[in-house]
Amino acid sequence: MSSSDRPTGLIAKSGIELLTFGTPNGHKASIILEELKAAYGKEYTFQPINIMENIQKEPWFTKFSPNGRIPAIVDHDRNDFSVFEGAAILAYLTRHYDPEHKFSFTDEDDLSRCEQWVAWQHGGLGPMQGQANHFYRLAKERIPYPTQRYVGETERLYGVLDHQLSDRDYLVGPGRGKYSIADIANFGWVNVSYFAGVDLSKFPNLEKWWKRIEERPAVQAGLKVPSESKIINSAYLRRLKEDPEFKENEDKLKELGNKAKEQYSYKYASP
């Protein structure tokens, strides 16, 4: 359920209401909500918050997200309790609505490990790749140093994930691991690797993990909330094959990125 009009306030009276946009952080919330819907029948309402129009800065929204960023949720079944920040949303929703711990853990050590990988993403991968997005693709002035600095740091962090997944299918859990919010938190960012100038195929364990998660029906549904994204890897790779002009522009970007690395003698290393 969603509203197609420009949001000006909450629209639901019960259940979870998600205020979001099609970004890696937004997808964390929509994916876990779709997983809970598939697992338990937990319905939710969403509203698109177009960050290009600065809706996230409007007073009605900052009431629920003081930092003026998406996503945010409001739990109408718990006295309209609101939660902002993707990591906090993942923890809140599994704490209250994952009674069988399908996406979370009861073992104290695995719970801590899960918290560690969510914190790692929240404090490292997200901020660094966000800067890589900006300087590699969006900055009006092409500046070589921060381009190679942030793309390189994102590659280093991908190497950390790749190593963690060298002998397991998921980041946390006994044996080869169990799909959890640790994976959801990191997937949102790995799923836009090419947009940031990072070639996911250079990280084979991570690429297999990405494909494994992307194939989940609830993940596919979550990636379409509030609408289909054009920057996720699958859409990017498809466009690269089908749109010669797009490919030409991407090749130019890649060349600029490689020159920036050469200028500052960048060498990949991880961790």
From TrEMBL:
<dbReference type="InterPro" id="IPR004046">
    <property type="entry name" value="GST_C"/>
</dbReference>
<dbReference type="InterPro" id="IPR036249">
    <property type="entry name" value="Thioredoxin-like_sf"/>
</dbReference>
<dbReference type="InterPro" id="IPR040079">
    <property type="entry name" value="Glutathione_S-Trfase"/>
</dbReference>
<dbReference type="Pfam" id="PF02798">
    <property type="entry name" value="GST_N"/>
</dbReference>
<protein>
    <submittedName>
        <fullName>Related to URE2-nitrogen catabolite repression regulator</fullName>
    </submittedName>
</protein>
<dbReference type="InterPro" id="IPR036282">
    <property type="entry name" value="Glutathione-S-Trfase_C_sf"/>
</dbReference>
<dbReference type="InterPro" id="IPR004045">
    <property type="entry name" value="Glutathione_S-Trfase_N"/>
</dbReference>
<feature type="domain" description="GST C-terminal">
    <location>
        <begin position="107"/>
        <end position="246"/>
    </location>
</feature>
<feature type="domain" description="GST N-terminal">
    <location>
        <begin position="17"/>
        <end position="101"/>
    </location>
</feature>
<dbReference type="Pfam" id="PF00043">
    <property type="entry name" value="GST_C"/>
</dbReference>
<dbReference type="InterPro" id="IPR010987">
    <property type="entry name" value="Glutathione-S-Trfase_C-like"/>
</dbReference>
<comment type="similarity">
    <text>Belongs to the GST superfamily.</text>
</comment>
